[in-house]
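As agreed, record minuted below.
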Amino acid sequence: MEFVTDRSERDLLEGTSKGCYQAQDLNRVETNTRELAQKIRGMGYACPDFASKLDWKLEELFSPATWPVQEQMERYLENVRTVSAAYGLAPELPGSMDRLTLEGANNIEKALESLALCMENTEKAFLYCGETQAGG
């Protein structure tokens, strides 16, 4: 999984790809959120199913006729909250996607990155039954 957590004011001023929230950002977060939910369920934790949009297109973000509506963006953030809560985490996320700041965008992906790291560490700590553990 890829996470972009280091957006800076310089990115914004120089117009780099990290300086504005684009379709690729939406798709990456939606995909990561979906994959983390599947991993959580695979580890035996309860995680509600949720809708995702994995095919955002650049044109949708620049045409008033197809701009993401508030409901879609609320769902987007709620999905991040849902997977985090399913694993017992409560990350600091923006209250909405309205007037998203660089810090808010970074925090969305930091939340998912932290969740992925916690899950990875949990998997490493699992004990497996074998001769040394079972005495057999």
About this structure: Residues 9-134 form one domain.
